[in-house]
Amino acid sequence: MRFSPDGTHLAVGTDVGVWLYDVPDGKETALFTGHTGQVNALAFSQDENILASGGFNNPVIQIWDIATKSKLSTPIFTRGPNLLDALTFYGRTLISIGGHDNVSYWQVDTGNKLLQSSVNISYDVVAFSQDGSSLAIADRNGGIHLWDTTTSSQQATLKGHGAGDDSEIRAIAFSPDGKILASGSEDKTVKLWDTQNHKELGTLSGHLGWVTAIAFSEDGSTLASGDANKTIKLWDLETRKARDTITGHKNTINALAFAPYGGSRYSGCLASGSADGTIRFWNPVKEKELATFASGHIESVKSVAFSKNDTTLTTVAFNGIVDVWSLKTKREMFTFTDGQCDSTDVAALSSDATIFARMGKNGSIAFNPYGFGHRGSFRGGTRLQLWEIATGVEIPGPWQTDGRNASSVFFSPDYDIIAVSVHGEIRAWHINTGVQLFRLNARWSPWSNPVFSPDGKWIATSEGSGKTKVWNVEAPNNEPAILSIEKTNSITFSPDSSILAIIGKEGIYLWKFQNESEVEPTIIPGNLQAFKSVLTFSPDGSILIGSAMAGWGNPIKLWDVETGKNLGILSGHTEPVETLVFSHDEKTLASGSSDGTVLLWDWDKIISKAKEKIGN
Description:
By secondary structure, this protein is mostly beta strands. The chain is built from two helices and 57 strands. The strands form 14 sheets. Strands 5, 6, 7, 8 and 9 form a five-stranded antiparallel β-sheet that branches. Strands 34, 35, 36, 37 and 38 form a five-stranded antiparallel β-sheet that branches.
């Protein structure tokens, strides 16, 4: 997050673009898109007219005109690795660091590169000084390197937080005058450094979680530090003592920024952004919350379901928070928070969005500042729990104990059965009675979750060994049908339950598992091999829809089931797609992603374009 120099605007970098907020009235005034991935780097020009943005998986630095809320005509193409970690202005020169070690100097008006140098350091976190003259680089061994951007030369190396398992630095920041550097680490401390004499000034101790964000006040008298334990500490830099502790966020503190002093009612306030999806403003003197400035910046969407009448859409975030949205207004109607935790292991919604199941865990979680993924330190898992979303009533049952440590949870199509994958078995219970219906000897695969067939008669599982099995729910003791495919991944049934589609090494296998005369499955040459993939059929069964990382992209791909022809792609998500679900009227496809968004697709229009593509 960055405040404009006069404090009237707040720019927030997210996985879907840059949000620009008007600080005095708290309203969002623009969403700057055009980035193909996460926005990590933001910088306002000193005259406050220009905002530069860039980040992970995006080789272009975008230049935005603040007055017109539009993109300037001269983008800057870095032409390097798709990674940009920090930006700063030095007069009319824009300085960037990216590609792990390239420091580049750009002429903003023309987009021309003036100079490039290499720091030759493998790092995780970097920061520019406020005037752009200095650069701090935290290496992967806990050390810190100071770089003079005016001469493109290294000034000094600081010992940092030392070597060891907890030495990784997760946040660094310069004081406004550039004379002090603060670094926060997984050792739960903040260290202060003299950038002139290159000496350590002191260590600030008191955090109970990894330090993940740091910011100095405009006058340099106060330091704010946030951690993975949901806590913000305010430090008096003269005494180097903690002045107060701020709580209120429900998850990791991802970003901190002090507003400049001025005429706004938020003058000098502290802004904090958290993985709980909110930006909050605090009075750093009275240590009280001024406002929940924004919400909805969620890290990841894990599950999506339409209501039976398709009037609402229910989403589950990575932290177990459930939101119900009106499909007419596209606005949030209410939030269910009883399942909130620091991170969900598994989360699932019934097909009519009435029941929510999740198993989560609590502890410290820190998200990768440059790209996706996270690290965590947890205190153990919670029990598997079910709730009726509308009433908030928890549904008790044997799954609370027997489903503990489940690797996946899934509902039958008529949502009266809950099944879990745990300890090499599929265990299933009737939700209303709690009676156990069956146990299947099905080994767990980290790449594929078990699924019910649409008619509720079959369960398909895919093992890490490559064996895909289809079990008869009505005769669970019978031997399953088995197909061996190398490097199996996501699986899904066709709408009529006659075909199982399986992502494998050679493509997408279409297996008519009930037809004993069909020895070999047919193969659609669609490459969806990735660490995370998802697959489903169109409602009429004629089109396969799947998504997996392609390079650093995350397109949704379409194939004609009969011919195997590629029907095109749907682009929009900037991180891996977690789920694909059709509305009950078959008119809308919803895709939920790790980028924290759900995109709604008009299926009739998609079909029309697909027919044009194949000339049919």
